[in-house]
Structures are given as C-alpha cells and as structure tokens.
Amino acid sequence: MDESTPLREIKSADSTPLKTSACEEEVEPTILTLHDDHISQNGEPLYDSESSNTSRSLVFYLVHPLNSHYRTDKPAYFATCAKESGLGNIELNIESKGLSKTKYKVLLSAGRSASSDPLFYNPPTTALSAKTKFVGGKYFWTDSQGQTIAQEALTSDDKPQLKIMQAMQTNFRDAVVAAWCLRIWSQIWND
Fold first, then answer.
1. In 42-146, where do the E strands start and end?
2. Which domain of life does this protein belong to (predicted)?
C-alpha cells in the first residue's frame, strides 16, 4: 500500500454534496456513537468507513503516514477533504501537558482538499481544540472562539460517544467528527 493511501475514509449517510456557503443547513445538537465500522446517531448509521458503499457521499480521508514519528513533511494524523468543495484539510496536533494530560489542536487549511499541493497552508488556522479538565477525564471540544461545542463520553458498553452541544453547519460537523476519529485513533495508537 502506498504511504499516502488513507487507512480510513469517512462517508456521510447524507448523499447531498458538501456546501461551503453561509446559507448551508445547520444540524442540531446530537449524540454520535463510534462503532467498529460506522458512527451512528440515534442508532442509525450517519457515517461509515465501508469503501464499497457507493450510496454515501465521501467526506474525508483519514491518514496516519508510515513512520510518521520520524517525518517532518506531513502531520502524524490528518484528514483530507475528498472534494474540493469541502471545508478544508485538517491536521491533528498533539500536545502533552503535565504528567499524562494531553491536549489536541485541530488545524484547518480552508479550501484545501486531497488533490491540493501542498495539502496544508503554512501556517494553518486553529479551528478546534480538545482537552480534559483533569487527567483521565472526558475531552471537551472547543471552537476557535473558545466556545465548548462537543463533549466526549463512553456508552455503557465502552463505545466512544461525541455529544454535539451546539448547532453547526453540516460541513463543520463533518470536520469535528473527522477530528474526533483522529483523536481516538492517535490515543489508541499511542497507548
């Protein structure tokens, strides 16, 4: 497999194309649950990673490059927009604080996609951050203005959940979900 081949793809159950205009439909607060091969909302699949399912709209490619801890040309964890009309490429920046308290910053290169060269602007814009209030606690996601927009939790059977607490545009929620998946992926990989 080529090192730039994504290991996961995120597809939306909503097959409408991504829009970037200000008049895009907003989605209401909700709770999303991560399963092995999909993310559900109220028990119904909302995003999945099945590459054979063509009825869904491809949103992001999730990437963890080979030997990423030795590389300086690409972030260790990032997501690229499948379409040029998407929000933009995102990279997950992992910052350790204290003994084991980890903070994550999500950097956005607006208007970039998987076909862009380079993939990221230098410097990108900070779009989101995720941090806990104490070691081992839940992660709270904030936007670039510092407003809490989402909170992580676990279901009774230990499946990760993301509680979206604010209404937001669909393409921004897609980016939040991709960043959440990257954060979980990095945590699993590094544990």
1. 44-48, 57-63, 77-81, 88-97, 101-110, 125-132, 139-143
2. Eukaryota
